[in-house]
Predict the structure.
Amino acid sequence: MNTQRLCFIVSFLLLTNLAKGQQVPANSLNLKEKWQITGALLDSITRQAVPFASVALLSETGAIVAGQTTTEAGHFTFAGLDIGIYGVQITYVGYQPRTLTGLSITASQPRRDLGSLLLRSESRQLNEVRVSAQKALIEEKPDRLVYNAGSDITNKGGTAVDVLRKAPMLTVDVSGNVQIRGSSSIKVLLNGRPSGLLARNLSEALRMIPANTIQSVEVITSPAARYDAEGAGGVINIITKKQLKGSNGSLDVTAGNYVQSLGGSYGFKREKFGLTFSGNTNAEREKSIVEVTRTSLVNGQPVGELFQRTRADNIHPGWFSDLSMEYAFDTLNRINLSISSWGGAWPNSNTGYYRFRNADNQVTQEYNQVVDQQNPFGNIEWNLGYTRTFRKPKQELSILGQYSYTFDNSRYTSDQISLTNQLLYRETSTNRSHNPQWTWQIDYVHPFSRNAQQVFEVGAKMVRRDVRSLYDVYTSEPEEVARLSLSVDRSNTFTYDQQVAAGYASLKLANRTFWTLQLGTRLENTSMSGQFIHTISPFRVQFNNFIPSIILAKQLTERQSVKVTYTQRISRPMIWDLNPYVNASDPKNRMAGNPQLRPELAHLAEISYSLTTLKGTYLNLALYRRQTANSIEDIRTVDTSGVSLTTRQNVARNARTGLNVNAAGQLGRNWKINGGGEFYYANFSSPALQVQNSGWLWQLTLNLAYQLPRQYAVQANGIYSTGWVLLQGKNSAWYDYSLAVRKEFWDKKASLTLGVNNPFTYPFRQQNDSQSSTFRSHTANHYFTRSVKLTFSWQFGQVRTEPDEPVRKITNDDARSK
């Protein structure tokens, strides 16, 4: 622990010294730090700030001296100027350009504050949709890193899993499991709001979202107070492509050996009303072979050994649709309504061979097994929101409501068959569940100044969930295998209610020396209760969480900044964690929920430094520490017959200290490159289980893009990870790589993209070694991921370049994704 603290302090001092080394010398600051031109850009109608606009500093002759983009609050500052006469030129897509001249800097007037500059929107009718420039793949905003997936052609024809695999600070393994800095306790939002699709099972849900529809991915490692406190690792916000002004649409068709999809969208927007419909249907194939060798232990001595080999080859169909409408009564009042639905199936059928030897190395069980497991599910969700803006920039009131209904039905049939093809045992089970959910939310933002440098936010929220799960298990009798009888002790009806009431307040302060301090606090009250029809005792739990958040940032120079953050995050157990239903589709490897689970609380601290050079090269360094005292971990126990049971328990302390590096730049005129890495130390300890596991690990990602003549483009990306540490084991290294070639035609309105994934790997092998006082196990996973796909994309219609108003919707960050 002392060593980790020392590493943290040393790294902090190194970063601080680096920041100081990059500043302008003190004697220069004494002469010129007050010689500056400042201002802020506002929309002439809404009085909202205009962020990321281009501002150029002009000499007296009109030549460009320097350039920058406005901050999120619309501010710009040119500092360290010489005495003279300057001009300012402002340009931004969707607004009329504006130029100011004759701005004098003298010894008696060293500072020119231009105040709030109003920009008028520009309406121009275009004949077709065009894209004239692409954003950088990685961008930094005040509280997040953004991966612009729309600029990455290797995503064509893939799913959200492929997109998140390339986002900074995220790890997505071969099975699609997502982590932020090693934590799978995260909250994933879709366009800033929760989704029943993503809350159900994240790895499965991400495969239902086509990559073609994703514009960007925002990674928020230190969420502010306005975000729900759920998600120990942080928040991921997936932003889909927006409907543009005018009437337009898109069509995407993908064909491949492992994925097929058909999707599109169409919509129109006028001055006051807009409507958009989008839909997609897809099918993805998943093929794998898993071999497990597991030894049962009693007092450290082997008492039996299980060997199993299972093969799976499943097609996972899915679909989703979304209808969104918005209406602006005037420039200050608007409402939005959206209706979304999705559904599909995620079968997990497989065949296997099982052999169990006793302590004398004699085979006591040997059989084949056939499992037919289906999991149909669906969801429908309504969102209604009202937003009132005011003349003062950033002042806003929003009232939001959401209702969603999810059904999730699973069933399986498991047959044990002798090597002579005789039925030995049969088991069937059904688990029918539904989850209606209501959410209400109100938020108010009040700036104390017109430049929005001092902002106060306050809000309240209420979430109500009612979940019901009915599960039955039928097993065969030894004397009559074909006859099934209800297993009363494994069948039940579980009713679960959860209510979360929350309130928050946040204050943001900024000064003219480029210091920004944001202080926030959030108070959440959670009430959970569960009841069973028989056998299991009911439970009721209520707790309060006081969640502070602190963000301190300093703009060192025009192109350098440093930031320090601290917050806390909680992870509440959800229905799938608490439900004691035992899934025994594989009788030797059972899984069950734990109604005794309690929330976990994590502490997160981070210091980061970012630099952008004159040529546009970007670098971000982030040193972080996350610590959880009562972390929820998967715990496996194995009995003497070789049967394992996996449940989740609050039995461990989880700590992780690491360094993230992310960089992006351009090599020459046509080459673009970006990538990142993470080097970290993970430590798990459980005094209750007398288990401790730790290790140093790292991973690297790299993306390359090259623009060829005649509208051809090539892009490649890859990731390599040394694996990860778990409480009871460790996974071996893994990697993933892809290559894509795109050809644009029809005046860039259409394209064909050919992509290949892991062309030289068949299959990909990954191993896991785990152990405890009751077992030691070795697992060899064989994943078949070599694939090829061809995607046709077409954009059609007309568009007017006018700025869009943001649409406010419910964000249930508290519903944690698995």
Observations:
- The two ends are 30 Å apart (CA to CA).
- The first strand starts at residue 36 and ends at 43.
- The chain has two domains: 34-119, 138-797.
- Confidence is low (pLDDT under 50) at residues 1-32, 123-133, 799-807.
